[in-house]
């Protein structure tokens, strides 16, 4: 019997193959051109990595935050062109992140949290600055800590001149970390006992909402040393709280605090913040003002959502999501979008929404665009002048919660 040498050893060959097996093997052989020549194998090109630089953006290039609540460690910030409907890029915004942009458009910031071993180990709270054209990090520092709660837009803010970034914290107590963009470091931690969140004003100041219904006002001097004042309480927290996501314009230090019942407190922030007398959104629309927690079951039109309101500063128009329901339905999605003139305190229009929305944003230019979302993660764009649909960007994300538009 013939034998075969294999790996230095000699073993007998198997029994001779049958004719049928040989024919089957022949059938399985690849066809060879009659000439016997084979086609040349393609030469694979070496893959080269590069970075695409976006052209400078206009007023309709916006940031959209996706909380990705089903797996929050994969949170993201999308760079979106509202005119083309294209997703231009994205950066990571891990685990209940916060996003804010430099008013001049030079950079945008993400405050995020990660653990060394994925879901355990040493915790790292970070502040990352991104180049808005390459989406490359230009700064990546550790923060002392940050408030690790459901993302709130007022957890982080940038001063009107871009010099300071304020990051709200609750560990070990309520405080605000002051990051100096020129020195690239946290230069001060300001305690705000009993108060929360950050509403910036001017180049060196911010205010926080306090548990007694007042505002704490913090002014920083040239060395970032704080001085603190308080307003008198202007709302009753357990009767008619104000929304944390009330709209603001950082450049002017203006906030329109909106209560759960639909009252608007026109507020000018500063070392001595001035709070105007409240007026009713429903009354501006010709309806009876809504009840507060003292009559919680009265069903009427009420504000609700997450990023529930936005202000277009150039003409002082307020866009707010409204729904019908009793008190304490402040987290219900809006079924209508109401546009109001803040100067005349009159309703401009009511827009019925094709799908309920938890978020509304608006660009600040003359040809403004309104942004809405739905449960499917679509981003719907409306014409800011007419309220007519412009386009829908399908399946942009999973949990779209905030928008950041240039100049807001």
TrEMBL record:
Gene3D superfamilies: YVTN repeat-like/Quinoprotein amine dehydrogenase (2.130.10.10). Disulfide bonds join 195-210. One of its GO terms (cellular component) is periplasmic space. The keyword ATP-binding does not apply. Its main location: periplasm. Keywords: Disulfide bond, Electron transport, Oxidoreductase, Periplasm, Signal, Transport. Pfam families: Me-amine-dh_H. It comes from the Bacteria. It is found in: Periplasm. Signal peptide: none annotated. The keyword Signal applies. GO terms for molecular function: aliphatic amine dehydrogenase activity. Belongs to the aromatic amine dehydrogenase heavy chain family. This is Putative methylamine dehydrogenase heavy chain.
């Amino acid at each position: 019997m013939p034998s075969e040498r294999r790996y230095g050893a000699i073993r007998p060959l198997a029994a001779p193959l049958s004719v049928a097996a040989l024919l089957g093997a022949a059938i399985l052989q690849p066809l060879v051109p009659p000439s016997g020549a084979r086609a040349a194998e393609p030469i694979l090109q070496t893959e080269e990595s590069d970075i695409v630089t976006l052209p400078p953006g206009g007023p309709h290039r916006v940031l959209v935050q996706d909380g990705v609540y089903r797996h929050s460690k994969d949170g993201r910030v999308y760079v979106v062109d509202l005119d083309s409907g294209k997703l231009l890029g994205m950066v990571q915004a891990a685990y209940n992140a916060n996003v804010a942009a430099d008013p001049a458009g030079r950079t945008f910031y993400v405050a995020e949290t990660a653990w060394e071993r994925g879901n355990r180990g040493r915790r790292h709270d970070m502040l990352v600055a991104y180049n808005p054209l390459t989406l490359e990090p230009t700064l990546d520092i550790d923060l002392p800590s940050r408030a690790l709660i459901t993302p709130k837009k007022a957890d982080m803010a940038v001063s009107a001149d871009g010099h300071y970034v304020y990051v709200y914290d609750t560990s070990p107590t309520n405080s605000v970390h002051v990051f100096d963009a020129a020195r690239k470091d946290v230069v001060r931690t300001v305690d705000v006992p009993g108060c929360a969140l950050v509403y910036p004003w001017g180049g060196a100041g911010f205010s926080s909402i306090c548990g007694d219904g007042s505002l704490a006002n913090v002014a920083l001097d040239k060395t970032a040393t704080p001085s603190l004042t308080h307003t008198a309480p202007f709302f009753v927290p357990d009767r008619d709280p104000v929304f944390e996501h009330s709209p603001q314009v950082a450049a002017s230090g203006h906030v329109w605090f909106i209560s759960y019942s639909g009252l608007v407190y026109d507020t000018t922030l500063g070392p001595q913040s001035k709070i105007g007398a409240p007026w009713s959104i429903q009354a501006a629309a010709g309806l009876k003002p809504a009840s507060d927690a003292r009559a919680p079951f009265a069903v009427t039109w009420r504000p609700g959502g997450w990023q529930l309101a936005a202000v277009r500063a150039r003409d002082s128009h307020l866009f707010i999501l409204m729904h019908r329901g009793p008190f304490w339905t402040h987290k219900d999605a809006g079924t209508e979008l109401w546009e109001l003139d803040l100067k005349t305190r009159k309703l401009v229009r009511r827009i019925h929404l094709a799908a309920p929305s938890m978020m509304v944003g608006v660009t600040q230019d003359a040809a403004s665009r309104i942004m809405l979302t739905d449960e499917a993660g679509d981003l719907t764009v409306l014409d800011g002048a007419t309220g007519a649909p412009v386009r829908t960007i399908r399946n942009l994300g999973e949990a779209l919660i905030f928008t950041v538009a240039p100049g807001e």
